Amino acid sequence: MTKEGLPVKGLEAHHLISKGAFPKFRHDINNGICLCFLCHKYGTVITDNIWVKGLVIGDKISAHTQQENFMTWLEAGKPATFEWYQANKYNKKSVEVNFEVAFDRLYDMQTPEW
Description:
This protein has about 110 residues and is α+β, with helices and mostly antiparallel strands.
């Protein structure tokens, strides 16, 4: 269930660096964060006290339409992911993907049967 009490349709990968603009990051395991379907598509509104400095009740966090709030949330809650994004958002170098490592990490992240 989501925090809104709705059933989770499934997890979706949000690419921090656009996979269309920068295809070299498409399969980089560091270039993503899992979000529930509703949070990914529509975002979420803060309804209670939150530990993220600079965000208050009523603020919307959306990876697509409220990027500034999303990045504030990401920096506070996932600092390593945020640091990777900061270091690579203007990176023009090619990236070599180790698919064996990527698939191992994805396997380790599988959610249990509910």
